[in-house]
TrEMBL record:
Keyword Manganese applies: no
Keyword Translocase attributed: no
Source organism: candidate division LCP-89 bacterium B3_LCP
Gene3D superfamilies, sorted: Glycogen Phosphorylase B (3.40.50.2000)
Protein name, UniProt field: Lipopolysaccharide heptosyltransferase II
InterPro entries linked: Glyco_trans_9 (IPR002201), LPS_LOS_Heptosyltrfase (IPR051199)
Keywords: Glycosyltransferase, Transferase
Any matching Pfam family: Glyco_transf_9
GO CC entries: cytosol
GO MF: ADP-heptose-lipopolysaccharide heptosyltransferase activity
Any one Gene Ontology BP term: lipopolysaccharide core region biosynthetic process
Length: 335
């Protein structure tokens, strides 16, 4: 095996996408134990890579997608680092430029028109419909890595854990605290607030403490859910992503839409119940793991369409609160 000293991983995407790359990061480090692995990510998801022992440096990409000058400036900084291997997990013009600028002898990416010129090797046997974490491994095949793993991971910092322990103690939250994440990056993935309120009321009747989590721009929507509830619930304080990971790690389970929060919960070992509509469960849910279940309304022609806009939202409206409650009971995680 040729001696390599530095590897660059590139993924400019959302929170969940970065979390779902952690299995590939772990396997890559096991294959090259003496190599320093750097990871380029957007500033927000870069937070959840903190404390990951498989990474040498996390490099935040601060520019907007349409900032061409910023992409060239950032790529020049990578040029000075002189990598041996680069792996582009996204394949946009900006990430292809970064890969090319890395000066790596081996540059792996997707076989896309024009952008393929930035790479020396391409993904092999990409398969759609698989759990997304497993699809990352098609980009490791050109490196001779055949092993595949689906377990995602976040290494919660001691500082975040201490903060959450204090929050739980100050508020009297216990091990029957259930988190609800009622928002998603795409509005079409959001279940109805009144249905979340009904599930929250049921959880309260089962002796659970309900905790509504939120992120930037989501507080107003969460307060709407809170106002619709008959019984009391807590609204979480503002959190960083690492604090959110620590918070979810302390909860009994998470009920949520298909979102980055769901993937954070999976990565810290917290059971999840996800309401799906336009997103495909097989792509975003670990296969065969009873700790992670989902609900969706079947027999809808456009189910799992993957669209970002919709004028009827039938797939979300047809999921009743009774369906979600029944599915939670079948998980048997509240007893």
């Amino acid at each position: 095996m040729p001696e390599h000293k530095k590897i660059l991983m590139i993924l400019l995407r959302n929170i969940g996408d970065v979390v779902l790359t952690t299995p590939a990061t772990r396997v890559l480090k096991a294959h090259y134990p003496d190599v320093a692995i750097d990871f380029v990510a957007n500033p927000a998801p870069a937070q959840i890579l903190e404390n990951n022992p498989n990474l040498n440096e996390i490099i935040p990409y601060p520019y907007k997608p349409d900032d061409i000058l910023g992409a060239f400036r950032f790529s020049y900084d990578l040029f000075k680092r002189n990598y041996d291997i680069s792996i582009d997990f996204l394949g946009t013009p900006a990430t292809a430029l970064m890969s090319l600028a890395s000066r790596a002898e081996i540059r792996v990416g997707f076989n896309l028109r024009i952008r393929r010129l930035a790479y020396t090797h391409f993904d092999q046997n990409y398969k759609s419909g698989l759990y997304n974490a497993l699809t990352k491994f098609t980009l490791l095949k050109p490196l001779g890595i055949e092993k595949e793993e689906s377990r995602t991971e976040i290494f919660v910092t001691e500082e975040a854990s201490t903060w959450v322990d204090r929050i739980f103690q100050d508020n009297g939250w216990n091990d029957r605290t259930v988190a609800l994440s009622t928002c998603a990056m795409r509005d079409v993935r959001c279940w109805l607030p009144e249905r979340y309120a009904e599930v929250a009321n049921w959880l309260n009747s089962q002796g659970c403490r309900v905790l509504l989590t939120w992120g930037p721009g989501e507080r107003e929507y969460v307060e709407k859910v809170h106002a619709l509830m008959k019984d009391s619930a807590e609204i979480s304080p503002p959190t960083t992503l690492m604090q959110l990971a620590a918070l979810l790690q302390k909860c009994r389970m998470l009920v949520c839409n298909c979102s980055g929060t769901k993937h954070i919960a999976v990565a810290v070992g917290t059971p999840t119940m996800t309401i799906h509509g336009p997103s495909e469960p097989s792509v975003w849910t670990p296969s065969g793991d009873p700790k992670h279940a989902y609900v969706r309304a079947e027999n809808i022609d456009c189910l799992g369409c993957g669209e970002s806009d919709c004028d009827h939202l039938t797939c979300m409206k047809d999921v009743s609160s009774e369906m979600v409650i029944d599915a939670i009971q079948q998980m048997n995680v509240l007893s």
